Amino acid sequence: xxxxxxxxxxxxxxxxxxxxxxxxxxxxxxxxxxxxxxxxxxxxxxxxxxxxxxxxxxxxxxxxxxxxxxxxxxxxxxxxxxxxxxxxxxxxxxxxxxxxxxxxxxxxxxxxxxxxxxxxxxxxxxxxxxxxxxxxx
Length: 137
Known about the structure:
Elements: H1 10-37, E1 42-46, H2 59-79, E2 85-91, H3 108-120, E3 129-132
Parallel strand pairs: 1-2, 2-3
Helix pairs in contact: 1-2
């Protein structure tokens, strides 16, 4: 469960920050030498619709995902001149356990198809960001 400002527990807060922000930053930094050698280098960060449309009760989660989005925008400005594309995906909820939900969820393969589309784009095309949600969700 994501941390919210009213019931904030440090363990949840730190968990959201470590998983959603620290990990992508460290991994992206570690991959730079390989990206610079690649023929079609691209960085894709998976953010969340919650970074754009903040739901009640998810203030810390939304803030961590908004930080990923800001990191992606800044990185794009820094790395596009080197020929490295940077895209951020704002995904709505994804059904990863096939549990019934009160609202429509994306399937993992929906996100996978979007990633494939972005990867297949011409190397001269920079897809800055994409928001993906389930139809009727």
